[in-house]
Write a structure and sequence with these properties.
single chain, about 475 residues, alpha+beta, Transferase(Phosphotransferase), domain 1, Protein Transport Mog1p, Chain A, 3 domains, seven-stranded antiparallel sheet
Length: about 475
């Protein structure tokens, strides 16, 4: 094949690999400026009788239409061309200059939880798009995940759906039997091995890939319990929240797994929201500090004590209010995001950080000023806009969100919950506490739904300062406006 020209334009440079389903080649397109390099996949039907070829042509047309739609995603190779030549079928796809993750993350190497979570976030976001187009990949594994050199983005390649073209066997009635078990052992769940894949089959494969990176053990080498469930938790350093998500992704029976990538994404987003800050600095013991104090320190302490006596009056002076970020409650700036259809007011002395994260769906954060150089955690308010699935009602979204808070953070304790309003619509409010080491944090989540989207405001503070900033936060929450988006 090397050196040959296909369809009068694709010059085959070298063989890249292949197997029973076909061969893959690096080629140059002689009709494109600069002889654009591309990937040519050759698909050979097992049988070439007229009836089988007719079915193969129909499947090829259907699957290439699907691949063309998928290729509109920025992290799926674009389908450039497809054709039939000498009773063989060819796909021409965008060449991704990079290397697959099996070469980047070698067996035996363990990645940290944060590294694995970041990669899985990226994969799941792509898979949400794939499932929106009613496609099952069937063969997600490290070798089918490419990291592009130019920007380090991960690409999902080699969709197994087109492999059906090369494996169809027509029975005596001219009908096509159920799909054979296309996939790779260890990453492929039981129902897919039996020829009945569904959306959760791809979720299983992603979960097993994540477990492989956390444990450094190939999936087929991990033991299973009497119920067929993967035993891996004792072989990795991972939080309960993330482990619970992975366990649900790889449950033996598909009905026990997440039923869509969108559900996995929501669980990961919720884990991101409930996870307490990791930048807390432990405070020195007070007696240790006092042993090193000078006369000036002691006098200063007396001054602080006297100030505490008159603290109520001092607290409301303009200087103190400004230092604590409360003065901004009287001086509100306006944030307007027309793309997301939201408006909200915030204290003009708080820092605004716009987000552009397709994974967490966060839109913007507002962060309080530092009270002093020793301020360990700056209180913040986060606005999130995320699409919902299956036309969820407010009650359904509320139930799921409350479950995720408790399931993903073993330290979470709901202190108060009640019906509420947000942006003039019915909503729900949950206040809960959580811990990071010896530090306690308090969070407020308020959400509502409109136009198949959930609008969520999250307020995060150290437990001891939660009430201090609550008046400002309540003004911000009350100011939120949600508009119709295209």
């Amino acid at each position: 094949m090397q050196g040959s020209i296909l369809a009068g334009r694709y010059h085959i440079i070298k063989h890249l690999g292949g197997g029973g389903f076909g061969q893959t080649y690096l080629a140059e397109d002689k009709r494109r400026s600069g002889n654009l390099r591309c990937v040519v996949k050759q698909l050979k039907p097992q049988f070439t009788d007229p009836q089988t070829l007719s079915i193969a042509r129909r499947l090829f047309k259907t699957e290439t239409e699907s691949l063309h739609q998928l290729g509109t995603h920025s992290q799926i190779p674009e389908l450039l061309d497809h054709f039939e030549e000498n009773q063989e079928f060819y796909l021409v796809q965008e060449l991704i200059d990079g290397r697959d993750l099996s070469k980047e993350i070698i067996p035996g190497q363990r990645l940290s939880e944060s590294e694995v979570m970041a990669i899985l976030h990226e994969i799941i976001e792509i898979l949400v798009f794939v499932q929106q187009h009613k496609v099952i990949h069937r063969d997600i594994k490290p070798t089918n995940l490419m990291r592009r050199n130019s920007d380090r983005k991960i690409f999902l390649i080699d969709f197994g759906a087109v492999k059906q073209i090369t494996t169809q066997i027509v029975n005596t009635t001219g009908q096509i039997p159920p799909t054979i078990g296309i996939g790779t052992g260890g990453y492929m769940p039981a129902e897919q091995n039996n020829g009945h894949p569904n959306f959760s089959s791809d979720i299983y494969a992603v979960g097993m890939t994540g477990i492989e990176w956390l444990t450094g053990i190939l999936p087929h080498e991990l033991p299973k319990d009497a119920n067929g469930e993967i035993v891996w938790r004792d072989r990795a350093r991972v939080s309960d929240g993330f482990a619970n998500i992975l366990n649900k992704m790889v449950r033996y029976h598909f009905r026990d797994r997440y039923q869509s990538a969108a559900e996995v994404l929501q669980a990961l987003n919720n884990l991101r929201r409930v996870r307490p800050p990791t930048t807390v600095i432990s405070s020195p013991n007070l007696l240790t500090l006092m042993s090193n104090w000078t006369r000036e320190h002691i006098i200063g302490l007396l001054g602080v004590s006297l100030a505490a006596i008159f603290g109520v009056a001092a607290f409301f002076t303009p200087e103190i209010r400004k230092m604590l970020g409360l003065e901004g409650a009287d001086n509100l700036a306006s944030y307007d995001n027309t793309a997301k259809g939201i408006k909200i007011k915030y204290p003009d002395n708080w820092t605004k950080q716009e987000e552009s994260n397709a994974i967490t769906q966060e839109v913007v954060q507002f962060i309080s000023p530092k009270e002093s150089e020793g301020d360990k955690f700056q209180e913040r308010l986060i606005v999130t806009v995320e699409p919902t699935t299956n036309n969820k009602t407010l009650d359904e979204y509320t139930k799921l969100s409350k479950q995720e808070i408790l399931n993903l953070d073993k330290n979470a304790k709901i202190d108060k919950e009640e019906e509420s309003t947000l942006a003039g619509k019915n909503g729900y409010r949950v206040v809960y506490t959580t811990k990071e080491g010896n530090e306690e944090f308090k969070k407020l989540n308020v959400w509502t739904m409109k136009n198949d989207k959930a609008y969520l405001i999250t307020y995060e503070a150290e437990a001891g300062k939660y009430e201090q900033f609550l008046p400002v936060v309540e003004k911000m929450i009350k100011s939120l406006e949600v508009q119709d988006t295209k």
